[in-house]
Each structure stands twice: as structure tokens, then as C-alpha cells.
Design goal:
There is one protein chain. Helix 10 runs antiparallel to helix 15. This protein has a 7-stranded parallel sheet with strand order 6-12-11-7-10-8-9, with helices on both faces. It folds into 4 domains: about 60 residues, no CATH class; about 170 residues, no CATH class; about 180 residues, Helix Hairpins (Orthogonal Bundle), CATH 1.10.287; about 240 residues, P-loop containing nucleotide triphosphate hydrolases (Rossmann fold, 3-Layer(aba) Sandwich). It is α/β, with parallel strands linked by helices. The protein is elongated, with a radius of gyration of 65 Å. The chain has 25 helices and 12 strands. Strand 2 and strand 3 form a beta hairpin. The longest helix is centred in the middle third of the chain and has 73 residues.
Length: about 725
């Protein structure tokens, strides 16, 4: 239902929906038909950012970082749009137009106003700004005037940027540039000049930065070299001052000797324990008498053995003290062989006795005792040597710590020096290289673009039509006016008896509304609506046996109560009912003013003999009033009024009373209390505000006395909506 209402609203405003797009199309056509054609020129720049063939010192790690690559491309795109670059293009365009017989654009009015001297001055300034790469100084009046010339010719930086398109071609190494203008040579000239100026600016700027970087790195390299040399000299002086040749080798040698001595000491201690155990075992096999005999028989030979043993112990001590010199080792081996011979001789010459069976044990014991004596002597020498080595190590430890500190400082200084040297070498190489950005191919004169005039014209019509639809939808959505009876019933929640369309004819005789002379299509429809309302009223009046007094009121003034009263009277007359219409609206007695024969309510209430006759034997009679700021009960007493109304009931089938509006609540109530039924008129195309809600609540309090509402002045389009 709501959608149908919206369609009805559109149908009612169909001429607006058609006229607005047509007007928009016409306006768009006249605005665009003189618009010049556009020409698009294109070119590409190779950046060398991700193309290793364009890079002499490519960094694969940097190339792999996509975020950094994107950042570099973003910086490059913004650099192309820099004012320093675009201003050069603006100067070039102005210089071309001022010096060429075929300028790209016709001279603007401002440029035409300049005399020859002024144009020559402008040309000189533009050339000077171009050569010096300087922008116009907008604090200088002369430069402000030249800026106005650029703006008038549409050669200023902002105008150029509006027609310029720059973007990276997907994930490639290329930057694509497009320029759109009304002249093909102009499009190509702008792109080629822009690329040339951008490459020149970027190369010069990068070269200058590289030179600054190289100079800075050179100074830093010299500082790092001086620092490293100072650290090396400090270490050298420390070694000379403390008479240190090679502390590292010396400490290594000492630790090696100390380890060897500790190993031999452990072995000597182990040998002594082993010899003591073996000698004790041999002694346990002889009784005291045997030992006494053996000792007495080997006294002489024991002396020789003892001498040889002492010499062997002495050589062993020197062998240890000499850090195990091989010369002493050979002497020890020779003396050991001699000792073995003496021990063998002792066994052969003297041990010829009953104890000869134990001669091998005696010989073994002697060897063990000699070896134990040598081990004990060597152990003392080893302890002495270990102590000396520890003292030497303790002496060189402070020197070693100091030298290690010097070495660390030298390593750090050397690393810093090498890092700076590598950067300096790389910067030196890069400073001698040309920039990697280049224009792939020159832009050719722009190609003509498809005209957008027709598209803009059609789009203007479509957009205007859509805007109209949107506007009407907003109006429909925000509109709370009641136009049809169903809306009224839903909003007021009271019965609606029917509707009466808005009548546009001005010569309607309501007393002849059923005659054929007044039976046009519009009036026939109006008559059918009245019949429907009459039927609804008759159903409600069935319980009123002694009379049918109907009070017709409204929410506010001028809602059509007089029309409703006369129309109902006419339709009841069509049903052969005697009808009395009472003009009870003292504030606006319009029915009384329109009557041919005037009979006043005041005379009828105050004169016992006053009667009411139908004019020309008509079934419709009218009882008017003299007007004034009065109410019904001010005309006479309630008893008299009821008596008079009862008299009217006996003479007429239906009595229709027009009362004041409910906005004058007290005056309307006086008439309502003397009526059998009440009808309220509601004019279409208005909302139910708070006051109307109060009036509707009052009507509800009348219960069955209130029949319902009649909706008046319904437009024909709203009626069509109800039928839909």
C-alpha cells in the first residue's frame, strides 16, 4: 500500500519528472557542445629500483624488502609532483608560447593586455627562473603579476597537476605518466619536459648528496685511521716500556711447562706410592736374621751402587730443572745401564749362600729403592719448578690484562675503520655513476580521446531524474498529511463514514444535485459518495424512533461543514425525505447568507407562532441565524429549545444542524447535547496534531452518539490512490 502511494505521488508529479531531466539535458548540451576535444599523451620512466641490470652495486637484501621498494616508489612519485619540477614545466610552456609562432594555447586576455616591453620582461624573468630553478616569489609584486599570467594561461603548477596522472605499473620497475589536454602537441611537450626536468633534478640532487656523503665519509675515515694508529702506538709503547716481546707466546710456553710439570709430579707421586708398597711386600718375605746376613754381605757393593744412585739422582734433578733437556736424558740412560750392571754383579759375587733362592727379590728390591729415591728427589725438584712457573705467571698476568685491553681497543678501532672505508669506497663508486632513472621513450602527440559530451548530457538527465525520485521519496517519507479515509481511520482510530471529493465547479446547485442538468461525470461521482454516506448514517439512525437530529461539526473552521450539510440535505431529498438544515454557526452563518428566503433561529425560538415552510414546495428547508458572538443557550432556555426541536422533529424527517468547530468547544457542545447523532468533518491534506487528538478523544466520549468522520476535499489523485 505504501509503495502504491509513492507511485501515485510520482504519477501526480509526472510532468515534473519529465521536465526536470529534459531541462537538465538541454542545459548540459549547451554547456558542453563548445568544450574542446581532449588528447592523451603517455610515456614511461624506468626507475632502476628493482631492476638489477640498472644497478652497478645491487643489494639483494634491499631488493627483497617489498615495503622498502614501495616506499621508494612513493617517494619517487611525490618527487615528480614537486613544485620545483612542475614549475620548470610551467616556465617552459610560457617561454614556448612567448617565442613561438604557433603557441600551444591562444593568448589569454591578460597576456593580450601586455605590451611588447612587458612581454619581453616576462620572457626574460621566466628564462631566468628556469635557468636558476627558482620559484616565483609571491612577496614581490612583479612575480605576483607573472603568477597571474601563468594562471590565466592555465600553465600554473596546479592546472598541470590536475591533468597529470602518475602511477607505478603494477609490480614492475616502470612509472607510467599520462597528460590530458586540448592540444596533442601540448600533451606530448608537457610529458617530455616533465620527464627531462625530473631526471635532471633527481640526478643533480642525488649527485650533490653523494658528493656530500663522500666528503663526510672521507673525513670520518681519516678520523678512524688516526684513532686506530693511536691505539697501535699505545700498545707498542707499553711493550717497549715493560720490555715485552711476545707475551702471548711466553704465557703459552709457561702454561705448557706448568702442565707438563704437574703431570710428571702426579706420576712421581704415584710411582713413590707404588715403590713403597712393592718394597714393603718384599721385606715381608725375609725374617730379621736373613736381612742382617744380606746387608752384611752386600756392604761393599752397596757403596758402589749408592754412588751411582747419587749421581743418577743428581742428573735427574738437572734433567728436570733444564725443562727435560735431551742431553741429560742420554746421560741418565747411560748411568742407569751402569747401575743395572752393578746390581747384577752384586747378585753374582756375593749372594752364594743358603739364601741364594731369594736373590731375584733382593735385586728387585734394590732397583725399586733406587727408583723410589730418584722419584723422591725428582718430586722435590718438580715442586720447585712448579713454584717458579707460578711466580712467572703471576708476574705476567697484569701485563697480559693490559695488553688484552689494548688489543680490544685496536680491534674495535680497526673494525670501525674498515666499515667506514667500505662505505667510503661504495660512495666513491656511486658518486661517479650516473642516475639509473631514464625515460623509456619520448611521448608522442596525444591521441584523441572519446568525447564525453554525449555521456555527460545523458548522465545529467539520468542523475536529475534520480534526484527527483529521491526528492519525492523524501517528501513522501516525511509527509504526514492525511489524504484518504484509510489513513484517517488508522490515525484517528474512529469510524470514517466516507469521503467527498474536491469539487472544482463553481455553479453547483446542491438542491438539484440529483437532476440530470447537474449530472456530469464529476457530479455523478460526488452523488454516489453522498449516497454511500447517507447509507452509513441511516444505519446509525435506525434506533432513533422519535426523530433524526444530526449535528455536523469539524475540528477547525472552514473544513466544509456547510457543503456537507447541504449535500446531505440534497441526497436525503433524493430519497423523498423532508429535510431541515439549521445554521447553528453563529460566528460564520454562511448557510444563512446563501439562503433565498431567510427564516431566523432567534425568531423561531422566541415566537410561538413562527413556522418554517419549504420554499417552492421543496423537500429542503433552511433555518438561519442572525450571527453574532452568541451561543445556543444564550438564545433561550434549554426547555424552550428542546420543545422547539421536538416540534421540528414532528415536521421533518431529518434535521441537520451545522455547529461551530470543536476549536470553540463550548458552543459546539451546546448544539451536540440537543442532537441525536454527531458527525465530524475532516478536511484532507492535514495532519492530526495534539489539539485534534483532544477533539477526537472528546468525540469518543460521546460513545454511540458519535457516528463517525466524513473526509472532505479529497483530491481526485488521492481518490485514485484509494481505488488502486
Amino acid at each position: 500500500m505504501e509503495l502504491k502511494k509513492y507511485y501515485t505521488l510520482l504519477y501526480n508529479n509526472r510532468f515534473v519528472l519529465l521536465a526536470a531531466p529534459v531541462l537538465a539535458v538541454l542545459v548540459a548540451f549547451f554547456l558542453t557542445h563548445k568544450t574542446p576535444d581532449s588528447y592523451l599523451a603517455e610515456t614511461d620512466l624506468s626507475t632502476g629500483i628493482i631492476d638489477p641490470t640498472q644497478q652497478v652495486m645491487a643489494n639483494t637484501e634491499t631488493m627483497a624488502q617489498e615495503s622498502r621498494v614501495n616506499q621508494q616508489f612513493a617517494n619517487l612519485l611525490e618527487t615528480i609532483k614537486l613544485g620545483k619540477v612542475v614549475d620548470q614545466v610551467s616556465y617552459s610552456l610560457m617561454i614556448h608560447d612567448l617565442t613561438s609562432d604557433q603557441p600551444f594555447r591562444p593568448k589569454s586576455k591578460l597576456l593580450q593586455q601586455l605590451n611588447a616591453s612587458a612581454r619581453a620582461h616576462a620572457l626574460w624573468v621566466f628564462k631566468d627562473k628556469y635557468n636558476s630553478r627558482q620559484p616565483l616569489n609571491l612577496t614581490v609584486p612583479d612575480d605576483i603579476g607573472l603568477k597571474s599570467v601563468l594562471d590565466a594561461q592555465k600553465y600554473d603548477a596546479e592546472s598541470i597537476k590536475k591533468q597529470l596522472t602518475i602511477y607505478r605499473t603494477e609490480s614492475s620497475d616502470f612509472v607510467h605518466l599520462e597528460f590530458l589536454s586540448e592540444q596533442p602537441q601540448l600533451s606530448a611537450f608537457v610529458l617530455n619536459t616533465l620527464c627531462q626536468e625530473f631526471i635532471s633534478y633527481t640526478t643533480a640532487d642525488q649527485q650533490k648528496n653523494k658528493v656530500y656523503s663522500t666528503e663526510f665519509l672521507q673525513k670520518l675515515l681519516e678520523q678512524k685511521q688516526d684513532t686506530m694508529n693511536a691505539k697501535i702506538a699505545a700498545l707498542k709503547n707499553y711493550k717497549i716500556r715493560n720490555r715485552i716481546l711476545d707475551l702471548k707466546d711466553e704465557s703459552t710456553s709457561l702454561y705448557t711447562q706448568l702442565t707438563a710439570y704437574r703431570d710428571k709430579k702426579a706420576q712421581a707421586e704415584k710411582d713413590i706410592l707404588s715403590y713403597n708398597s712393592a718394597i714393603a711386600d718384599i721385606n715381608s718375605r725375609f725374617d730379621p736374621h736373613d736381612r742382617k746376613y744380606l746387608e752384611a754381605s752386600t756392604i761393599k757393593i752397596n757403596g758402589e751402587v749408592a754412588q751411582t744412585r747419587d749421581r743418577l739422582v743428581l742428573l735427574n734433578s738437572k734433567y728436570i730443572q733444564s725443562n727435560f733437556d735431551l742431553r741429560y736424558k742420554r746421560s741418565i740412560d747411560s748411568l742407569q745401564s751402569r747401575l743395572d750392571e752393578q746390581i747384577g754383579l752384586m747378585s753374582d759375587k756375593y749372594v752364594t749362600n743358603p739364601l741364594a733362592g731369594k736373590e731375584s727379590l733382593v735385586q728387585e728390591k734394590i732397583k725399586m729403592e733406587i727408583s723410589r729415591a730418584m722419584a723422591r728427589s725428582g718430586l722435590l725438584n718438580l715442586d720447585k719448578q712448579i713454584s717458579q712457573l707460578n711466580n712467572q705467571i703471576d708476574r705476567i698476568v697484569p701485563y697480559d690484562a693490559a695488553i688484552q685491553s689494548y688489543d680490544r681497543d685496536i680491534d674495535v678501532a680497526a673494525k670501525e675503520y674498515v666499515d667506514v672505508q667500505n662505505k667510503y669506497n661504495q660512495s666513491s663508486i656511486e658518486s661517479n655513476l650516473k642516475g639509473s632513472i631514464k625515460q623509456v621513450e619520448s611521448a608522442m602527440p596525444g591521441t584523441r580521446q572519446p568525447s564525453k559530451k554525449l555521456l555527460l548530457t545523458l548522465a545529467s538527465g539520468v542523475i536529475t531524474f534520480m534526484v527527483c525520485l529521491l526528492v519525492f521519496f523524501i517528501i513522501f517519507y516525511l509527509d504526514r498529511n492525511i489524504r484518504v479515509p484509510t489513513d484517517l481511520a488508522n490515525a484517528a482510530q474512529v469510524p470514517v463514514l466516507g469521503q467527498l471529493d474536491l469539487i472544482v465547479q463553481s455553479t453547483i446547485d446542491y438542491r438539484r444535485i440529483g437532476n440530470k442538468k447537474q449530472s456530469s461525470e464529476e457530479l455523478m461521482k460526488f452523488k454516489n459518495m453522498l449516497r454511500s454516506i447517507r447509507f452509513e448514517i441511516d444505519n446509525e439512525l435506525q434506533d432513533c424512533i422519535d426523530g433524526r437530529v444530526i449535528a455536523v461539526t469539524s475540528m477547525n473552521e472552514s473544513e466544509g461543514k456547510s457543503l456537507i450539510c447541504m449535500s446531505l440535505a440534497s441526497v436525503y431529498a433524493m430519497a423523498n425525505k423532508k429535510v431541515l438544515v439549521v445554521d447553528g454557526n453563529f460566528d460564520n452563518p454562511s448557510l444563512t447568507d446563501a439562503a433565498y428566503q431567510k427564516v431566523y433561529l432567534e425568531d423561531f425560538l422566541n415566537d410561538e407562532e413562527c413556522g418554517i415552510d419549504s420554499p417552492d414546495n421543496s423537500l429542503i428547508s433552511l433555518l438561519g441565524n442572525q450571527g453574532g458572538d452568541n451561543s445556543l443557550l444564550e438564545k433561550n432556555t434549554e426547555t424552550v429549545i428542546r420543545k422547539k426541536i421536538d416540534q421540528l422533529k414532528r415536521n421533518f424527517d431529518v434535521i441537520i444542524i451545522e455547529t461551530q468547530a470543536l476549536s470553540l468547544m463550548n458552543k459546539a457542545k451546546e448544539w451536540i447535547q440537543f442532537s441525536d447523532k454527531v458527525i465530524a468533518v475532516f478536511e484532507a491534506n492535514q495532519t492530526i496534531n495534539q489539539d485534534k487528538k483532544l477533539y477526537i478523544n472528546y468525540l469518543r466520549t460521546l460513545n454511540t452518539k458519535f457516528i463517525g468522520l466524513i473526509m472532505n476535499k479529497v483530491s481526485v489523485n488521492s481518490a485514485l490512490e484509494v481505488q488502486a
